[in-house]
Amino acid sequence: MAELDPLIHAPARLQVLTTLSAVSEAEFATLRNALEVSDSVLSKHISALADAGYVQTRKGVQAGRRTTWIGLTGSGRKALRDHVAALRRMIDLVVD
Amino acid sequence: MLAAADQTRQRLATSLRLPSGLRPALAVAAAVQVSTAAYGIASQTAAGLAVALVGVAVFLGVAALTLSQFRRINGVRVDGLASQIVLGTGAMSTMFYVGAFAAATWAAFDSLWWLVVAAAIAGGAGYAFGVVRWWQAYRHDPAVNAGGASPRVLAALALIACLGLVALLMAG
């Protein structure tokens, strides 16, 4: 049975993974604007998630400027699915 | 917490925009591809092969340009959209494309060129409509519809399609 994942239990990290599940890759600025956080905050979360293998990053060019593209990995997708399932189970227990 | 994450995802999905002129450009590109392929298959000549390959090149060029514009204006890549545009993986796009291709090829063998053009236009319009329908489904449920073939897989499939077309025409 899937359990809560402490790495993505923080709301901001859960938001990062959930938002990335809507796309194949997102440019850093696009993700930052969607999450309404600062560059440094997003950088820290992305680094932690990349170290865990939940997201992958690559350098690219967007509108003529260098930028970073971020995408969910297979293990990141599975971690998100398992974590959300565990959360929903907990909510069901409380409601019941 | 879950609701906030869902809202952020939905906000991103609803903020995405298709490039202006996508529907007519895609409709014309698909119509050109269908009509040139029908002509090439029916003519069974080197010139016909060249025309068919030009049609494929036009379609792939428009698809690549459209996807590049989408990525530039939105700052995201959605492989599901690429699969819809390049491969026509949606049921409606597939149905219109296959129907138009079959009708156009049959008409080309009988030299009914007005019917080739009519079938290609109908197929192109249906193909583009299928992509727009998929887009609406994506915006409603982005997580379910975001996935698709990666750019590398699409490039490999496009190459295979071109080689298959050449083989088909050479065999004839």
Uncertain segments of chain B are none
Report low-confidence residues of chain A grouped into runs of 5 or more: none
What is the end-to-end distance of chain B? 62 Å
Largest interface: A-B, 24 and 26 residues
Q: State the secondary-structure class of chain B.
A: mainly alpha
Count of individual beta strands of chain A? 3
Helix/strand/pairing category of chain A: alpha+beta
Give the % helix of chain B. Answer: over 70%
Shape of chain B: elongated
Total number of distinct structural domains of chain B: 1
Strand content of chain A: 15-25%
Largest sheet of chain B: none
Key traits:
heterodimer, A: 96 residues, alpha+beta, Arc Repressor Mutant, subunit A, 3-stranded antiparallel beta sheet, 4 helices, 55% helix, elongated, B: 172 residues, mainly alpha
Report what the structure shows.
- The complex is a heterodimer of chains A (96) and B (172).
- Chain A is of the alpha+beta class and 96 residues long.
- Chain A has four helices and three strands, in the order H-E-H-H-E-E-H.
- Chain A has one domain: Winged helix-like DNA-binding domain superfamily/Winged helix DNA-binding domain (Arc Repressor Mutant, subunit A, Orthogonal Bundle), CATH 1.10.10.10.
- In chain A, 55% of the residues lie in helices and 20% in strands.
- In chain A, a hairpin with a 2-residue loop joins strand 2 and strand 3.
- Chain A is elongated and about 55 Å long.
- Chain A starts with 10 loop residues before the first helix and ends with a helix.
- Chain B is mainly alpha-helical.
- Chain B has one domain.
- Helix content of chain B is 85%, strand content 1%.
- In chain B, helix 2 packs parallel to helix 5.
- The longest helix of chain B is centred in the middle third of the chain and has 29 residues.
- Classes of the chains: A alpha+beta (96), B mainly alpha (172).
- At the A-B interface, helix 1, strand 1, helix 2 and helix 4 of A face helix 1, helix 3 and strand 1 of B.
- Strand 1 of chain A pairs antiparallel with strand 1 of chain B, so a sheet runs across the interface.
